[in-house]
Every structure is written in C-alpha cells, then in structure tokens.
Amino acid sequence: MPRSIASLHRLATGAPGSAQASQRSTQESQEPGETSHAGTLAHAVGEAALEIAKTSIRQAVAQHFEGDLKALRTALRTQGISDVQQCIALVLHYVGQACADAGIPLDDKRIDCVFDEARGCAVQAADQWEQARGFCSESLAVQEALRGHMTTARPHASLSALHADEFSGTPFGRIPPQARILLYVPPCRLDPLERALSEIQASRNATDAVKAGRRNPFMALLFNNEAAYLGNMAAGWKMIMEALRAPEPELSPDFIGRLHATAAATTPSAGTAGVASNFPIPPGNYSPDGLKEASAFFEGLRSEHGIDVSFEPVNDLGKGMYGVVRAQTDKKVMDAVMASWIDEYKAETIKADGLPDHEKSDAKVLAAIDLCQKLKRLHPFRDGNMRTFSTLLLNYLLAQQGESLTAIEDRKKLDGYSRREVLALVRKGQERVRALEQEA
Asked: What pLDDT shows up at residue 95?
C-alpha cells in the first residue's frame, strides 16, 4: 500500500496504477475479511486528492487572484459581462483546474469542499484588499458574488446533472459530460470567458498553457443563479430524449406545457387564465430582414387570432431597442394558436419529403425553426421561454428529423433574426455539437 501523498495523488489522478485499478487488484487478491483494507485505501486516496485540490486553490488565489481579475476585466471590457460574473468565473476557473489536477470527478461530493475552499480564499483576498486600500469596489464585488450567488450554486448536485449517465443511447448521450454545458447555456456567454481565462492561464508558463486547453465544466455554475437551473435543464433534456423513443414522438400544446414545466420547475397550468408578457429585443438580436418578419408575425397575431400585442421601438429603454407587449390571453386561445402552428409544422415536413435530397434537409429544419420562432415570440410562459423553445423543443424537432443537435451561439436571436439567418445559426451550432462529440 502506498504511503506518501504523492503516490496517493498518482492513484487519484489515474496515473499508472490508478485508484480504480489498485482497488480492483486489491479486492481480487483479498482473503475473506479484508474488504475494509480497500475501503481504507479509497478513503485515503480521496482525502489526499482533496488536500491537493485545496492546496492548489490556496496557492492560485494567493499568487494570482488580484492580477488575474484585472487581466480578465481588461480582456472582457467590451463583452458586456458584469464584474460580479467575472469574479465568479475566475474562482470557478481555479476550482476546475484544481479538481482536474487532483483527479476529482464531477460526481464526487468532495467538489463541494473544494468549492467552499475557493470561496473562502477569495473572500479573504477581498477582505485583505479592503484592509490595505480602504474602500475598494473590487473587494465588494468579489464578496457580493461569492457570498451571494455562489452560496446557492450547490456544485455537486448541479454538476451531477451534467455527468448523468441516463442519456446513454440518445443523441444527447453522445456528447461527453464535460462538454454538455454548451447545450445548457448559450455559447455566446461562455466562449469569451473561456478564451480570456485560457489566455491568462497560458501566459504564465508552458505547463499552464497545457492546462488552459481543458474544458472546465464548473463554469456551468456561473449561470446557476436560478436554484437548480442545471438540474432543471437536465430534466428537460431527459424528457425529450425519452419522448424520442416513442413510436410516434409527441408534439402538442400539452407536451409543450409539460416540457416548460419540467425545464423551469413549475406546475403546468390547469386553468383557463393565460399570462401577459413583455420582453425587449435589443440591438444585436435582430436584423433588418428579421424585423420585417417579426412585424408581419405580430400583425398576424392581431388580425388572424385576435391577440392584443404590440411590437415597436422603445427608445426610452435604450437606443435601437424594440419591445413586445402582449396582453393577458386566455389559455384556450393560446393552445388553439399553438395547435394550429403544430399542424402547419407537420404539413411542411410531409411536404418536404417530396423535395430533392439536397433541398429536403433545409426545408425540414426551416419548418422546425418556424414553429420555434413563433412560439418564442408568442412568449406563452412568464419565464423559461428561451430554454423551452430555442434549446429544448428545437433540438427535439431536429432529433426527430434525424438531424444533429445544435448549440446556437445566441439563442435570443430567434426573436429578431429572419428564418434563413436562424437556419445559418442552427447549422453552425450543429457543427459545434459534432465537434463536442469528439471531445474525450
């Protein structure tokens, strides 16, 4: 049995003679009554890995936190990512590196201890800034982030949703756990952070440059400010993957309501009272062609379905901003509208089967985009519309068609981009997913 921390670390990190292999060989050679030896070894390996990770965290925060935070803010000054999110992202970066170095997997409860260590070290660093400099906005931002958002992230429970093996044999299951984050959160929010953090890491030395190439699944916690967001999204993915196994995959207003309730952790509405909605479409989330199509869509809601909705510039919210305001609409009316759109989608996919092969795929994907765009613009739920329509339902329809899943760079663009422009985004997102499937 190895005696040193270093040899235990080799076991924990999967080096020759890994923990799993050592435990297996130990168990195979045991005499009756020796099972406690393997358990003691496994515990020692785990505790050694935990101490290695904690030490790595302490060193990273002590040596690099203040400088890294300044560098991150410089790199992201035009990206619209808040100071608080940058603070959280930096700590998650250290957590990801420490757990990878120590061989602590996503489904190990010890990550909660590593997470607590990182939070404590960063808060202490913020306190030291304040003591050294008096009032310091950086320290206050760090403390707000780490004592607020990160205390509700529940890392082990949340990350277990990424690691779940219940997706085996499904299109979603082809994506390795560490890469699934991009089908939970928009890549446009994650990619700039990961690029900036990798550049900071790689600027130190050759060893750190190698580490910078790792994907960090802990970064998913940055977007977990809604309690159990990752778990809810995992439940939504599980629902649509299970629905695909049915001889006739379901698609109805009731199915859409249950999908939303699953992904947003709400109770499906059983009454007749619908909801009102209002949401902005800011510059960057629309195009000239998209505005024309959106304007025609909302006019159709008014004239064909009698739904009280407005779509117009709202300059008091910011230059170039558009706003959608829909009055409370009876749920029966909403369900009837959604059912008519579903029928149109089914008719279009049948029609597409008669097209030449080189046209068929685009025609079917455009039909899926049309349905999801209409539903997203209708905004039938108080919240959770983007995850329901721009991520889950869209991918459900693509998988039904035998298409690759997609990770659209910015899912808000379904509001204000044209259907052809969204098709290009979907195709690019499919390329991204195919690349994710190749990650080890």
From this structure: 87
- DSSP element (H, E) containing 199: helix 187-202
- Helices vs. strands in the chain: H and E counts, helices first: 17, 3
* Average pLDDT rounded to a whole number, residues 394-417: 96
For residue 28, how many other CB atoms are within 10 A of its CB?
7
The answer to whether 102 and 49 have CB atoms below 8 angstroms apart is yes
Q: In 10 A of CB 360, how many CB atoms?
A: 15
User: Which residue in 88, 86, 92, 89 sits closest to 74, CA to CA?
Assistant: 86
Characterize the bridge pairing of strands 277-281 and 309-313. unpaired
Using CA atoms, how far residue 197 sits from 104, 194, 202, 254, 386, in Å, is 21, 5, 9, 43, 27
If one counts every other C-beta atom within 10 angstroms of the C-beta of residue 350, the result is 11
- Answer whether 240's CB lies under 8 Å from 395's CB: yes
Residue 403 has pLDDT above 90, yes or no: yes
For 390, which DSSP code? Answer: I
Nearest residue to 80 (alpha-carbon basis) of 188, 199, 198, 164: 188
N- to C-terminal Cα separation, the chain: 31
How far is residue 34 from each of residues 31, 43, 435, measured CA to CA in Å?
Answer: 6, 15, 46
Report the Cα 87 to chain-centroid distance in Å: 18
Condensed to tens digits (0 to 9), the pLDDT of residues 192-207 reads: 888 888 888 888 765 6
Residue spans of the domains in the chain: they are 55-230, 246-437
C-alpha dihedral sign at 362, 364, 370, 376: negative
